[in-house]
Amino acid sequence: MSRTLLGVLSLLLLGGYLALCLDVSRRRLWGRPRHLLFDPMAALIGRRRIWTWLAPKLHREQAALSVLFGGAAVPSRLLRQAAQFAGYGYGALLAGLLLGWLAASGVLAGLGALLAVVLPLMKRKELHGKLEARRHSIVMELPELLSRLLLLVNAGENVLRALECCLERPAGGRRQDGHPLYAELEAAVAAMKRGESFVFAWEEFGRRCAVPEARMFATTLLMNARRGGDTFVAALRELSHLLWEKRKAAAKTLGERASSRLAFPLAVIFLIILVLVGTPSILLMAGG
User: Is 279 within the bounds of a domain?
Assistant: First the structure.
């Protein structure tokens, strides 16, 4: 690729970026401080024709954002996420072209084009990684919650009071801040205190958690809470046993993943040691 072509492409991308910045200066996006990279991309992507074509293709990202943020302001969050994808790609491509033009190297331009594809994919993977981490944390904590609930119900507490006690840590009386399961549990308890029906509150709990195990927990509460007595306790005990088994299986899977990830670095270290030990012997043999 010639230096002239690299310069022309760089000027076109830079001119387009400046034009988008001028468009952003006429309006304020998202009600927050302007971002030099993402806001111009949002101004471009947010145009009706482009967004109408692009939004349906981001349905997986939309579902992930809906789960992560409880369905709050999903369209604006989706636009922001798409602007980040485009901003990283645009910035990498522009930087690659500018460096390629300055160094008269097509390799740098090609590297920029490669990064323009890789960086948005990495950000997309990061978003889905956050969703998977949230689901995993709920699955790992749910048996603990259910064990405490079972203990309190056996002690004679009613369901609502037992759930309120489960929102506190076993020691110190502090709340489980930041954990998605306890955040959704707190929202369900608050909904019942506001006068929402028990059924509605727990259906919303299962929907917002977006984890099959949490839906099983909510269904068990809905089916057995009104009956009470031994039937409810037996259902909780059976579900607790099932969820503990699922937690053991999840922990085993994580351990297998960790061991498989360690195999490659160990093999590399072994080869390095082999080279360091074997090279002097080979050199001595060759010199002899």
Answer: no
